[in-house]
């Protein structure tokens, strides 16, 4: 049962909400528009704020709810489950490498956040203003995403060595570092575009986004 739920977590994570909503309501294949990525940021830019918000909530929820389920139900049908963070991580892997989309999905930011904010809310919740602050001063969602991932890893490392709270264990530390690494790797092209001054800029609290899309990304 523990392995079955782990597999189901991956399958749930593989559900490409941005693609499905794009096709259903805008008749757009998100892979052929904007950055071509199936993540939340591209959904906002191509499909609009309303759909973007829905996609964001769903991408956060598909990993977060799995962690919540196992965290509060460590034994299901008489079978002991794995560490709850593993199920969130399986969903993140599904989001980044979805079986339905030839293993080309999002960059794992929203799904990783969902996993962390449910498992360790006192870490996850303060990440929101930090993410918004970096976006506000830099205008780059990609920089905010990777900066937040880096800070999360640092916090997890500090808490592992300096906290007696049980949830900040080695499993949590390893999964956070792996997710952060995935996020950094997936943003490689964004870093290149920032250096070349071709990266999409996001202006918070404004309706207009500066659009400079690279059809090759």
List keywords for this structure.
single chain; mainly alpha; two-stranded antiparallel ribbon; 2 strands; disordered C terminus
Account of the 3D structure:
Helix content is 66%, strand content 2%. It is an all-alpha fold and 217 residues long. The chain has one domain. Strands 1-2 form a two-stranded antiparallel ribbon. The longest helix has 24 residues.
The main sheet comes to:
2 strands, antiparallel
Q: What structural class should be given to the helix and strand makeup?
A: mainly alpha
How many angstroms separate the termini? 40 Å
Shape: globular
Radius of gyration: 17 Å
Topology:
Blueprint: H1 2-13, H2 17-26, H3 40-47, H4 49-72, E1 75-76, E2 79-80, H5 84-96, H6 109-119, H7 121-138, H8 141-162, H9 170-186, H10 188-195
Antiparallel strand pairs: 1-2
Helix pairs in contact: 1-5, 2-4, 3-4, 4-5, 4-6, 5-6, 5-9, 6-7, 7-8, 8-9
Quick rundown:
The chain is 66% helix and 2% strand. It has 217 residues and is mostly helical.
């Amino acid at each position: 049962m523990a392995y079955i739920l782990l597999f189901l977590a991956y399958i749930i994570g593989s559900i490409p909400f941005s693609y499905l909503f794009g096709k259903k309501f805008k008749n757009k294949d998100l892979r052929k528009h904007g950055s071509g990525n199936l993540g939340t940021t591209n959904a906002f830019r191509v499909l609009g704020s309303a759909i973007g918000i829905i996609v964001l909530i769903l991408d956060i929820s598909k990993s977060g709810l799995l962690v919540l389920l196992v965290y509060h139900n460590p034994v299901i049908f008489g079978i002991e489950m794995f560490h709850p963070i593993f199920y969130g991580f399986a969903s993140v892997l599904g989001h980044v490498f979805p079986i339905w989309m030839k293993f080309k999905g999002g960059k794992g930011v929203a799904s990783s956040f969902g996993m962390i904010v449910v498992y360790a809310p006192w870490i996850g919740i303060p990440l929101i203003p930090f993410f918004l602050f970096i976006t506000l001063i830099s205008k780059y969602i990609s920089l905010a995403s990777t900066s937040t991932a880096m800070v999360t890893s640092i916090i997890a490392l500090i808490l592992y060595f300096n906290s007696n709270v049980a949830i900040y264990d080695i499993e949590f530390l390893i999964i956070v570092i792996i997710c952060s690494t995935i996020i950094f790797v997936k943003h490689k092209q964004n870093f290149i575009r920032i250096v070349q001054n071709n990266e999409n800029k996001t202006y918070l609290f404004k309706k207009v986004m500066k659009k400079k899309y690279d059809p090759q990304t």
